[in-house]
Specification:
This protein is mainly β. The chain contains 2 helices and 10 strands.
Amino acid sequence: MNNTRLTFTESFKIIKQQFEGLVTGIDGEPYMPPGIPNFDDEKLGIGFFRGQFKDNRLDNLTIPRTYFGRSELNNISFKNTDLNESRMCWNDWAECDFSESSLKCCDLRNSIFKDCSFKNANLEDADLRHATFENCDFSGASMKGTKIKKASGILTRFSPKTIKTDKKQNLEIDWQKENGPEAPGG
């Protein structure tokens, strides 16, 4: 696999080509918000909002601080893509591939992930509370500081469906006593 990522400007052009008229924030010049985007920001960068997105390859891109909200995303590959500080809440994700991607400091709350791969992904300091994971692969993923509610499954489960983590991941995870607030935009 090619580990070189495109620049943000090059990645913006790819998103614009594949999603013209379907994704917000791609009409003008490339814009990256100063922090994690929120649904009520005056100006958003790239945004996948209230749509159905299917069968796309978004590998090796640099698209941090992207907004994903109230959407269905099916069979989309984000292999080796930089999604750091993205808001990815209130979505249904099915058969998406985040292998070797960077999801550092991402907010994934209140989303459903089904048959998704997070193999060797960087999930450091991501928030996975209120999220559901069914048949997802987290093997080799870095989970240092990742927030997960302990009661949502004890040590080796994120939901009623078992998602196994290894001993190293169990020690890295920031196990929460409470689920905390739901994600904004609900």
